[in-house]
Amino acid sequence: MVVINKAQEMIMATLFVLGCFLQTVQAAKPDDVALAWRPTSPFRDELRDLGVAGLIRDDAEATALVSTDFGNVTVAAPAAVLYPSCPADIAALLLASCARSSPFPVSARGRGHSARGQAAAPNGVVVNMPSLGRLGGSSTASRLSVSVEGQCIDAGGEQLWVDVLRTALAHGLTPRSWTDYLHLTVGGTLSNAGISGQAFRYGPQISNVQELDVITGLGEMVTCSKERHSDLFDAVLGGLGQFGVITRARIQLVPAPTRARWVRLLYTSAAALTGDQERLIDVERGDALSGLMDYVEGTVLADKGLIGSWRSPSPSSSFFGSEPDVAARVAKLAEEAGGVLYCLEGALYYGGAAGGEPDVEKKVIDWCMQRLETLMRELRYERGFAFVHDVSYMGFLDRVRDGELRLRAAGQWDVPHPWLNLFLPRSRVLDFAAGVFHGIFRRGTTGAMGPVLVYPMNRNRWDSNTSAVFPEEEEVFYTVGILRSAVSDGDLGRLEEQNNDILRFCEEAGIPCVQYLSYYADQAGWEKKHFGPAKWARFVERKRKYDPKAILSRGQRIFTSPLA
Q1: d(CA 222, CA 225)
Q2: Does residue 246 sit in helix, strand or coil?
Q3: Residues 248 and 294 reside in one and the same domain
Q4: What pLDDT, on the 0 to 100 scale, is given for residue 303?
């Protein structure tokens, strides 16, 4: 564990306090959304009377912009939007809600990347978190602070992970654990878990946080960690926004590589793919493949296939080599395999630690090549279907951004996304594959686009004291992300029906599954299907302690009224 001495802690804390002070004394320069100032309204007047500072808007333009989210499935308008210039503005808002006989709901919104209105505040107030990095003369740089000696970074809860990465890389450092999409906020992913292909080694992002600044539902501003206020620290991590608003996170850093060998290998069976994945993530067994990859994921290719997914390079990309018939060969392989292929996606990181010395750099590159040769020899992929590309470390981690920009250009980004994310025990993943990938998917082809991910993680890299829920019965569990986009008329209904079929299949087949980025229609669903008795009791106890009036994140539908 990295130890931050008192001097470092005081300096880093002072930078954040100074940034907030400057925000309050400098002339405010609102972002484009907040430029139009509307006449006062009774609700806004009430907020002012209750001591709420910061820019507040309650006009139709402002509320409409936060009424929907990335999912584009639900619409829920707030009464107003708060554009805070510093964390104290958020604390004042929560205190104002607490002071009312009927508290109004408050939800923190970062990039609005939720899928089912989880960050909505119907008839309440949405907090526009990016304003913390823009209003009152603030900037992204003033809300990001690196300690090279302490190997950590303090990041505002509103900061994007891509900016955290850029700032850390400027010092030759990097966080250890990521999400696949970096244009999300720190507070947003830490309120869920934050997973990707590095979680098998380092755990989710919530396992790599050293300290948090949190504003509880009672309006209290608290600095917490494993050493102080540990119950709040654990509650907030993976807490779905139910216990507090994250305004700062201290994240562990390590020396950064500079390059990545990005590898994709095609398989014709789920058994071969998952067997190889499990060998790769077993970092303690000492197998020939143990820990050879720094990043391990997988994809199911049942509709659009390898080429055409928004997570993939375009067909003309050199990633697929110089063969003009690669798409035809992949299609033929899929046909021979019964319409379903699997792809192991991984990366080997190298460079960076050698300090630029040619001899050392050569040894690092040689070691990377030796690892790659071992992978190509030992893994059970279909020979002739290996695609290897050398990219920058930054380019690999931010690779999904290219797909996003392509979809935006085609008008296919702001469409409904009825996503379904599940955690499954290792012992049932092949049963799931047979019933869903080779069953439900094949019977209900919709033509909708979007990736289907499947990859394993090690349970011992997760902390059961946090609020995150994950399978604890086995040492390895899988995540399955069915990340479809409804791009044509009728797709949304068909995809939602397919999601229900998948959940029904799991129930009937006795496959225990936990939803990640969860959605349930009511509290009973959360209690029975998600948490279970023991975890639910702890979750309720924490809610009573930190947000007893159920002010925070009612859009999750966990608590919609004050607790008795």
Answers
A1: 10
A2: strand
A3: no
A4: 58
pLDDT tens for residues 411-468? Answer: 999 999 999 999 999 999 999 999 999 999 988 655 667 899 999 999 999 999 999 9
Q: How far is CA 251 from CA 141, 155, 333, 464, 520, in A?
A: 16, 8, 44, 19, 31
- Residues of the chain below pLDDT 70: 1-40, 135-141, 303-324, 353-358, 444-448
Active site residues: 113, 180, 297
Instruction: With H, G, I as helix, E, B as strand and everything else as coil, classify residue 59.
Output: coil
Distance between CA atoms of 62 and 121, rounded to whole angstroms?
A: 13
Placement of tokens 């349970």 in the chain: 459
Tokens representing 329 are 């060969």
Dist CA 516 CA 266 (whole Å): 26
Same domain, 263 and 388: yes
Sign of CA pseudo-dihedral 297, 531, 519, 63: negative
Between CA 281 and CA 58 the distance in angstroms is 50
The residue type of 456 is P
**Chain-centroid distance, C-alpha 63:** 25
Helices (H) and strands (E) in the chain, counts: 18, 18
Whether residue 486 sits in one domain with residue 371:
yes
Whole-number pLDDT of residue 317: 47
- The model's pLDDT over 112-168, given as tens digits with 9 standing for 90+, comes to 999 999 999 999 999 999 999 886 555 566 799 999 999 999 999 999 999 999 999
Least Cα distance to 283 among 275, 297, 293, 272 occurs for 293
- Do 252 and 267 lie in one domain? The reply is no
Q: What is the pLDDT of residues 76-126, one digit of tens each?
A: 999 999 999 999 999 999 999 999 999 999 999 999 999 999 999 999 999
Please name the amino acid found at residue 244. Answer: G
AA identity, residue 208: N
What pTM did the predictor assign?
Answer: 0.89
The span from the CA of 98 to the CA of 105, in Å, is 10
DSSP-assigned beta bridge partners for residue 248: 156, 213
Q: Are residues 247 and 272 in the same domain?
A: no
- Gyration radius from the chain CA atoms: 24
The parent domain of residue 249 ranges over 144-256
Say if residue 391 is exposed, middle or buried (CB neighbours under 10 Å; 0-12, 13-18, 19+). middle
- Taking a C-beta distance cutoff of 8 angstroms, is the pair 463, 199 a contact? no
Task: Supply φ then ψ for residue 260, to 5 degrees.
Answer: -140, 135
H/E stretch holding 501 reads helix 491-509
Residue 261's nearest CA partner among 376, 96, 168 is 376
Residue 163 falls inside a structural domain = yes
Q: What is the pLDDT of residue 11?
A: 41
Instruction: Quote the Cα angle for 281-287-293, to 5°.
Output: 40
